[in-house]
From TrEMBL:
Residues 394-427 have a biased composition (Low complexity). Gene3D superfamilies: Glycosidases. This is 1,3-beta-glucanosyltransferase. Keywords: Glycoprotein, GPI-anchor, Lipoprotein, Membrane, Signal, Transferase, Transmembrane, Transmembrane helix. GO terms for molecular function: 1,3-beta-glucanosyltransferase activity. Residues 330-374, 387-427 are annotated as: Disordered. It is found in: Cell membrane. It comes from Penicillium diatomitis. Residues 332-344, 353-365 have a biased composition (Polar residues). Its main location: membrane. The chain crosses the membrane at residues 445-466.
Length: 467
């Protein structure tokens, strides 16, 4: 596609995305991009409603750990296509927090493109099969270092605190840990006086507890609630419609949800893709509740969801590329504010309903592991990056749960309870909190499923939900 974008297309995609920025912004980042904020249940760019028009950017595929925004050359090559498609957002699943991202982030900003970033890596993530020991200070140091680095870019739109950690009923016992991590990330930004980049969770396409997880992440005290919620959705398979796909029911079920909601992956590929869902997603049938979404995915990999093939430095568009471009070109955002909910706010916590939702919402969250408290005060320092040893069986886990009284200090551990150290070889079993958990996957997936949440979810994320 190199050189294929017409100046008209550039002008169109840039025209909608650039606004005049305050001189201080320009001086600070050299980009002039306006940071995205949350109001009610919507995102805003200044005074204008912001809808995510994005793709998931994972060249090399979900099974290969790569940081696509550490490589300025391939990043700039692909930005031309993002612009040609009329996109304003990309999602990246893992970054090496020891690498420099200035050049790619600046090029994205210059193109009016924002980043939604997963803070985890396969080695630094919660372990859904045994979450308690994996919620430790070594893990938090890694993700704090990541948000420290990326919150300084004005075009970082949002952080995912977790991706598909919960993928069935039994794994919902990990939800308090996901919520604790979300709380800690938000606290880190606040305590370190960094920009309050919105933090939220990206849920798997699981019907049985999607709504409960969404409610759980938006209930309780302000410091424990998320800034937004996202989920993956492959239920619209062309040819389809708003009602045939069941999207009308999902709008209904999420009406009144008080924080922004968007699709972190979409684009069923069962039949020939026409991306008919684009017209629905950016229409007022949905925009009162949803704020757009991210198409899975930019590059063609084994799972066949790609818009382009990448061979060496050559990028070739596939039929899906043209189909998506045509759907997006035909679909403007609604006029005005798209009927968003200006009030927004918390909802009641969902009731425990095992086996689908095995969480006692009246219970308190795990407190931040004691040795990680210093990072909130003094900063996380440098990240160890992809070559780090990993965190799942390292460091010191949380020693207690907060009182849940609603004080703003619910994240910090109180008293002098002794911390339990769970260092050991990977694969070692532990009798910690989640010992009752049943195997989250079918037998064929079991070998990889046990320990690496991120690998598992990115490997199978798009496919297992279609089974
Ligand atoms: C909507 O909510 C109802 C009632 O909780 C539930 O039975 C149904 O599965 C939900 N529909 C979708 C599409 O999530
Ligand atoms: C707006 O959000 C609040 C908080 O969740 C909710 O109580 C209210 O019903 C919502 N309003 C509409 C019109 O959906
Ligand atoms: C904290 O809560 C979790 C889940 O709610 C529970 O499994 C764990 O045992 C509790 N930990 C402590 C130290 O009370
Ligand atoms: C938490 O709430 C209980 C009951 O409302 C109260 O007795 C207790 O003192 C509170 N604890 C803190 C730390 O505020």
């Amino acid at each position: 596609m190199k050189g294929a974008i017409s100046s008209v297309a550039v002008a169109l995609s840039l025209g909608a995305q650039f606004v005049l920025a305050a001189p201080s912004d320009v001086a600070k980042r050299g980009s002039g991009v306006t940071p995205i904020t949350v109001k009610g249940n919507a995102f805003f760019k200044g005074n204008e409603r912001f809808y995510i028009r994005g793709v998931d950017y994972q060249p090399g595929g979900s099974s290969k750990l790569a940081d696509p925004i550490a490589d300025a050359e391939s990043c700039k090559r692909d930005i031309k296509n993002f612009q040609d498609l009329g996109l304003n957002t990309i999602r990246v699943y893992s970054v090496d927090n020891s690498a420099n991202h200035d050049e790619c982030m600046k090029a994205l900003a210059d193109a009016g493109i924002y980043l939604v970033l997963d803070v985890n890596t396969p080695k630094y993530s919660l372990n859904r099969a045994n979450p308690a020991p994996s919620y430790n200070d070594v893990y938090l140091q890694y993700i704090f270092a990541t948000v420290d680095m990326f919150s300084r870019y004005d075009n970082t739109l949002a952080f995912f605190s977790g991706n598909e950690v919960i993928n069935d009923g039994p794994s919902s016992v990990a939800a308090p840990y996901v919520k604790a991590v979300t709380r800690d990330l938000r606290n880190y930004l606040k305590e370190q006086k960094l920009r309050q980049v919105p933090v939220g969770y990206s849920a798997a396409d699981v019907d049985t507890n999607r709504l409960e997880m969404a409610e759980y992440m938006n209930c309780g005290t302000a410091d424990e609630r998320s800034d937004f919620f996202a989920f993956n959705d492959y239920s619209w398979c062309d040819p389809s419609s708003f009602t045939t796909s069941g999207w009308d029911q999902k709008v209904k079920n999420f009406t009144g949800y008080g924080i922004p909601l968007f699709l972190s992956e979409y684009g069923c590929n069962t039949n020939k893709r026409q991306f008919q869902e684009v017209a629905a997603l950016y229409s007022t049938k949905m925009t009162g509740v949803y704020s757009g979404g991210l198409v899975y995915e930019y590059s063609e990999e084994d799972s066949n969801y790609g818009l382009v093939t990448i061979k060496g430095s050559d990028v070739t568009p596939l039929p899906d590329y043209k189909a998506l471009k045509s759907a997006l070109d035909k679909t403007a955002n609604p006029q005005g504010d798209g009927n968003y909910n200006k009030t927004g706010g918390a909802n009641p916590c969902p009731k425990k309903n095992s086996p689908n939702w095995d969480v006692d919402s009246t219970g308190s969250l795990p407190t931040i592991p004691k040795p990680a408290e210093k990072y909130l005060k003094d900063g996380a320092g440098k990240g160890v990056g992809f070559s780090g040893k990993g965190s799942q069986w390292a460091g010191t886990a949380s020693s207690s749960n907060s009182t849940g009284n609603g004080s703003s200090s619910s994240g910090s551990s109180s008293g002098s309870s002794s911390a339990s150290t769970t260092s050991g070889a990977a694969g070692q079993t532990s009798s910690a909190a989640a010992s009752g958990l049943v195997k989250p996957f079918t037998v064929s997936m079991a070998p990889v499923a046990v320990s690496l949440v991120t690998i598992v979810s990115t490997l199978f994320g798009a496919s297992f939900i279609l089974l």
